[in-house]
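Students often ask why we bother encoding 3D structure as a string. The short answer is that it lets us treat folding as translation between two languages. Here is a chain of 209 residues written in the first language.
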Amino acid sequence: MKYWVKTPRFVPYVFSELVWRFSPAKPNIYLTFDDGPSSLVTEDILSILEEESIKATFFCVGKNVIKNPDLYKKILSSGHSIGNHSMTHPNGWKANSGFYQNDINQATELINSNLFRPPFGKLNIKSLKNLKKKFQIVMWDVVSGDFDIKLKPEKIINNVVKNARNGSIIVMHDNDKFKDLTLSSLFPIIKGLKKKGFCFKPIPFNPLV
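And here it is in the second language, the structure alphabet:
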């Protein structure tokens, strides 16, 4: 499995219309979770975040919001931010642009947010112009690797704590498939980042309606 733990500098330069990192002026970082809400892991993540008194951003999949409406409501009532992660999690590099945009628009009926993150980080370029009219498209500059079953928790922790910097957007998951890796690494990640002086912030979002 090939992926960049730290996004190379040239990528945000080439795709400057997307959000890769926030201002480095202050030691703020933005912890994000993709794919949920999940009945097996989201509740535990919320408990850890509450225990540590931090807020995060959840990029939710519409079909999972339908399955777990109470968890979705709890994310919001707990003061976290939400973003659109599509209805069915299509691969933007393979999907037809019409289907892709329709899938995202369907999710807006459930996820009332101007934030969007493309599933797999693979944006459908033909859809970019239209998506920009409605969304702030949020990518990342640090990938935890909690989806990589070949990794041990120690490696995931190191991926984040070593590479985080002021303004970093960090990707983790609330996905059934990876729950053990996510939950075993989340608390040490938070502790490690706090020790380095970082403050956790949710990504500000605006309702679409």
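Translate back mentally: The first strand starts at residue 28 and ends at 34. Keep this in mind for the problem set.
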